[in-house]
């Protein structure tokens, strides 16, 4: 992947890359058409539904104290969970790529389990584990650490479902990273830490950021696994998707779509920000010293 | 190619016509979650009854999920022939959108609710906290598990039962508001739906008392073994009606109006009422109610209409955003 990027960064490469795949117009047209049908039309339906509200109603729906508290919780917990996954996902990817040990294939497959598991199952099993009478909960609660039915429980559920995103985006990049560069760094007298921060980290940072963004985006939209462990107390542990469901239960379609729209806009802005960060990082890392 | 067209068209027409003929004897009953077992038994009984009466074989499909979610699905186009819900607001929503008849509540006896249920307390075996009535729920140190009235019909009835219990004793609206506010301050976890609340109370061992439908008690005994929880009958509770309606939009298209009506009518028969009673759903028939007196202990009941006008009215005043519940319930504040 790093070599590809070097080619792309070269001025001649950009023009050449057009010729690699024929039919640029056709493929781009297809891409836009497909994305339009699959992504844009459903999302614009969301926007049109919220048009049923007047400006003032819209504002009231999206800025009620309960709703504001839920944004804070949803985005805060998602950010925290994605951050944890960033660190530990990298660690897991590193171990999977750089070491050989018995049962490696099984560990590798385990990483994907949160992908495949119905999220409700994840939520129910995590709650069973962490509640006061669960295996983990009964040890922790006497020590004063209460996880289930608290915001902490939400973060744990979001860490669980977000883990594969970081591991699976970082893993292939680490595999492609050239060992010779590290060896060269060691030959030139770099310490292990210097090799990691100056040689390895710049290579994998774009992938790390992508993994972070994916884990974060997934966590923001997560419903099934959170609902069982959250306790769902308004102002305290109520996530925004639950607010949306609550509005639908009272047949307030417009209010629900208004809140959904806010989530969409914030998520999109954050993803754009992360993308920009990635591009910036790539420029800096890509520029040879 | 073009010469083939009329033939294909004809074939397609014949196919769709035969499909319609088939569809005539098929009903889709869209219902709420916990009625699954009841309607499984009821459908078998109705199919046998219909075969005997009309000599026609029919098939009945079931669809179950949260009551409001089901109502939204039907509104958005799910081709239900009949809806059988646990809250009249869900049927009213369909009536407001012209999917079921405007006067649906007068199409069948007892406000089109062939069965009812009520809200009771479940406490841990032996009733360690000595919970006997509504007033015990607001004592300090008592933890109440209840469904969020914003996300579940179960929770709305629990709220209305608590509110009405105060009015029933001659209390004022202000006293009722104070009582309900105190009650929800004793709630450590707001469950999303009925089954969620049951799991929280029994599997996670949260709370001292669970407010839930009478019909849930049987399911809990079956699932977790009898004797794990005790049932407490408060001095007074609310009648929770299970309304039914024919989905006019679908039956007009499929030609199943007669069958759909027969299906709902038969819910009022003694046989159907007994099946309901066996599932701990309160029958309307006095005779059956008496026969199952062990399941349905006599309890003073008030209807939603008595104190709240209607469920639709209650929804507006109490549960919609900015309503009473939002005002009373200030969580995070002790």
Automatic annotation (TrEMBL), chain A:
- Residue ranges annotated as transmembrane are 32-52, 73-95, 115-136, 148-167, 199-217, 224-245, 251-274
The UniProt entry, under CDD domains, shows:
TM_PBP2
Subcellular location per UniProt equals: Cell membrane
Where is the major localization of this protein?
membrane
Alphabetical list of SUPFAM superfamilies matching this protein = MetI-like (SSF161098)
Q: Which domain of life is it from?
A: Bacteria
The question of whether Iron is a record keyword is answered with no
How does the record say this protein sits in the membrane?
Multi-pass membrane protein
**Annotated Pfam families:** BPD_transp_1
Give the matching Gene3D superfamilies.
MetI-like
Q: Name one GO molecular function term.
A: ABC-type sulfate transporter activity
Q: How does it assemble?
A: The complex is composed of two ATP-binding proteins (CysA), two transmembrane proteins (CysT and CysW) and a solute-binding protein (CysP).
What this protein is reported to do is described as:
Part of the ABC transporter complex CysAWTP (TC 3.A.1.6.1) involved in sulfate/thiosulfate import. Probably responsible for the translocation of the substrate across the membrane. Part of the ABC transporter complex (TC 3.A.1.6.1) involved in sulfate/thiosulfate import.
Task: Output this protein's name.
Answer: Sulfate transport system permease protein CysT
User: Organism source for this protein?
Assistant: Verminephrobacter eiseniae (strain EF01-2)
UniProtKB/TrEMBL annotation, chain B:
Check the record and name the CDD domains matching this protein.
Answer: PBP2_CysP (cd01005)
Molecular functions per Gene Ontology: molecular carrier activity
Coiled-coil boundaries: none
- List, alphabetically, the InterPro entries matched: Thiosulph/SO4-bd (IPR005669)
Q: Which UniProt keywords apply?
A: Periplasm, Signal, Transport
Question: What is its subcellular localisation?
Answer: Periplasm
- Its family? Belongs to the prokaryotic sulfate-binding protein family.
Q: What is the designated name of this protein?
A: Sulfate ABC transporter, periplasmic sulfate-binding protein
């Amino acid at each position: 992947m790093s070599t590809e990027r070097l080619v792309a960064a070269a001025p001649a490469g950009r023009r050449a890359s057009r010729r690699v795949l024929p039919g640029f117009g056709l493929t781009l047209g297809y891409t836009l058409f497909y994305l339009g049908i699959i992504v844009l039309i459903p999302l614009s339906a969301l926007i049109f539904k919220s048009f049923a509200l007047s400006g003032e109603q819209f504002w009231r729906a999206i800025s009620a104290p309960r709703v504001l508290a839920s944004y804070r919780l949803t985005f805060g917990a998602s950010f925290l969970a994605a951050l944890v996954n960033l660190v530990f996902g990298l660690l897991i990817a590193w171990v999977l790529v750089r070491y050989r040990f018995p049962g490696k294939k099984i560990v590798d497959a385990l990483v994907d389990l949160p992908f495949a598991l119905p999220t409700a199952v994840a939520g129910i099993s995590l709650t069973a584990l962490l509640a006061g009478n669960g295996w983990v909960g009964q040890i922790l609660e006497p020590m004063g650490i209460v996880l289930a039915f608290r915001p902490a429980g939400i973060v744990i559920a979001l860490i669980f479902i977000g883990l594969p995103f970081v591991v699976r985006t970082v893993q292939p990049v680490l595999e492609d990273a050239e060992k010779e560069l590290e060896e060269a760094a060691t030959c030139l007298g770099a310490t292990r830490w210097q090799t990691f921060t100056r040689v390895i980290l710049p290579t994998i940072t774009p992938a790390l950021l992508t993994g972070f963004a994916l884990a974060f985006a997934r966590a923001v939209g997560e419903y099934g696994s959170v609902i069982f462990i959250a306790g769902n107390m308004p102002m305290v542990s109520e996530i925004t998707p639950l607010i949306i469901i609550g509005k639908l239960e009272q047949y307030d379609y417009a209010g629900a779509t208004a809140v959904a729209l806010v989530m969409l806009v914030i998520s999109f802005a954050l993803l754009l920000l992360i993308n920009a960060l990635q591009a910036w990082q790539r420029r800096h890392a890509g520029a040879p010293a | 190619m073009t010469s083939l067209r009329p033939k294909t068209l004809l074939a397609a027409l014949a196919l769709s016509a035969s499909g319609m003929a088939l569809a005539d004897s098929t009903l889709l009953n869209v219902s709420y979650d916990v009625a699954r077992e009841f309607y499984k038994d009821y459908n078998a009984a109705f199919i046998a009854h219909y075969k005997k009466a009309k000599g026609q074989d029919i098939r009945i499909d079931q669809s179950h999920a949260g009551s409001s979610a089901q109502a939204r699905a039907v509104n958005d186009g799910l081709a239900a022939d009949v809806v059988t819900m646990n809250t009249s607001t869900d049927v009213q929503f369909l009536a407001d959108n012209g999917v079921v008849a405007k006067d649906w509540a007068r199409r069948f006896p007892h406000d089109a609710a062939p069965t009812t249920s009520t809200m009771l307390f479940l406490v841990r075996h032996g009733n360690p906290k000595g919970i006997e009535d509504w007033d015990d729920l607001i004592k300090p140190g008592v933890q109440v598990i209840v469904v969020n009235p914003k996300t579940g019909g179960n929770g709305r009835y629990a709220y209305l039962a608590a509110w009405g219990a105060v009015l029933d004793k001659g209390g004022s609206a202000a006293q009722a508001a104070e009582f309900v506010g105190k009650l929800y301050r004793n709630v450590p976890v707001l469950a999303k739906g009925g089954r969620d609340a049951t799991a929280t109370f029994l599997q996670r061992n949260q709370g001292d008392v669970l407010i839930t439908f009478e019909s849930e008690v049987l399911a809990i005994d079956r699932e977790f073994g009898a004797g794990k929880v005790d049932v407490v009958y408060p001095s007074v509770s609310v009648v929770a009606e299970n309304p039914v309606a024919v989905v006019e939009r679908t039956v007009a298209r499929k030609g199943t109006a007669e069958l759909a009506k027969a299906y709902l009518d038969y819910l009022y028969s003694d046989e159907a009422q007994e099946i309901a009673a066996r599932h701990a759903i309160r029958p309307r028939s006095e005779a059956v109610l008496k026969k199952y007196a062990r399941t349905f202990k006599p309890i003073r009941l008030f209807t939603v209409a008595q104190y709240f006008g209607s469920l639709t009215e209650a929804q507006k005043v109490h549960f919609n955003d900015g309503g009473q519940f939002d005002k009373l319930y200030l969580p995070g504040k002790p």
